[in-house]
């Protein structure tokens, strides 16, 4: 618009001066009218678009406020992922980074100002390093190893000459202010790391943003680091954010911070590690947490179950308080490091393995003294990327876990895609597997080329450490055998000598019905109680109020699990349980009573599971399971498990 009208105007006036004839006058009049019409059209269109946008924003805001009211009025319990165990009751403080944190308005500088800008940058950098050094000295005595390690990482980043050199180059070459140069460089680097999902670097982008934020805060306040508002919090604060940064936790008021709730962030993030080292319950994966809750809301946080209850009612508060009264925090991983093998009170050895989703979570196996990885969810390599990971990327990921944990076993589950796990690169219109609603192994068999590449990568990596292969969502003998044949074919073309152990995940009712045939064709089975329970009970796993681990206590699920356990024991094949029930005290009691001796879980649940097992005899657990088989309601099963656990410190 700004260009169109002057151009028309110039054309009109020039022609008027050159040809002041009547004919030209009418042409000019026409041009004038056309310009006005065009102007009216463009203005009309722009304001229609603005109105439309405003309407959409208003509708979204209304939707959010309705959802918020709904969550509060119904005292909704939202299901996420527990990152640090413990129970907390408190008041929400929404903590979001300022909207313009990474956008610095463009302010060009003159060539003569470059030196002064670079000096500003260097001063801010020096002030930030001093601040971190002081924090490290100040808290040296009571700082946990995790916190000290985090400060070390950040100090290394602050001393990274290459990174800050790039910021200075931006100032020099683009003639921009130091804050703009830092914001742009940090944004670029953080985005690059976030996109490297398959490279296990995502969590490090939070560290880069954290360091960048510290320096920006210092530069914006001319070398002085302003006090952090989190340093002093109201009592019983629960910090809620989209994605908290490590420094948010490090610097926040220890005495008054009782829990953390985020929309994203995994167990290997520094935020999760800090929370565990400070015994602060933490839950992630609460969708739209910062919109559904508001500062001042009351909240119950269960870091074990990975759930939060918004504006709880009296009954919820009372039963939560009763649980908290009996709750004893599990010994820290460090304290358990000296512990002897995991065993029941009467000495029956139970093997504990880790469920992990990414290579950098492998160190949790060592942190929690586990015996290996019982479930590596390889599909995370495929989600959130523009194209399927190639052979080299996958080989690097699988062999890195095998190398880190060698000689411990690592079970790689082949891509479990479909359902709620749709890769960004998949196009429903031309993807047969998606159009036909296939999931797990069926999806992989339909996307054969991609599946073959994955098998190649796993098989090559398996020639080194103790890698094992497991197929998800097996539904019978036909799909299992088709996958096995494909695997044999790849072994032959690749001329590989070592065939890894092959397992089937039992998590569909169809697989339970075929269990006698399946156990004859695999080296091991692993029961996925999460999906098995949802398929048997016809519940929606995605629902935010999903009963989660409790659905395992339904007698129908218990009986189906028992069928699988007995078939595997009779056949003498390996048997593991890797669903959430394997990391939950009631679930563990019933599973061990059923005959399971290998449990695979979120690593930080291991401390609690060990504690439970040390206090119960095998006979107590067998009795509980036998009693549970005789009842017909989930409440009865829960009662039986609860009374078996009664008196133990859980
Ligand atoms: C399960 O279904 O129990 C399981 C372990 O797999 P996932 O949770 O990844 O679906
Ligand atoms: Mg599953």
Please give the number of β-strands. 16
Number of discrete helical segments: 26
User: How much β-strand is present in the residues?
Assistant: 5-15%
| CATH superfamily annotation of the largest domain | Phosphoenolpyruvate-binding domains
Structural class: alpha/beta
CATH architecture label of the largest domain:
Alpha-Beta Barrel
Q: Compute the average pLDDT.
A: 84
Strand order of the largest sheet: 1-8-7-3-4-5-6-2
Helix content, binned percent: 40-55%
Major beta sheet, specifics?
8 strands, mixed
Q: Any idea how many domains?
A: 5
Overall form: globular
Radius of gyration computed on alpha carbons: 30 Å
List all distinct small molecules, including ions and cofactors, that are bound in this structure.
Answer: phosphoenolpyruvate, magnesium ion
| Level-1 CATH class name of the largest domain | Alpha Beta
The CA-CA distance between the termini, in Å, is: 69 Å
CATH topology of the largest domain: TIM Barrel
Low-confidence stretches: none
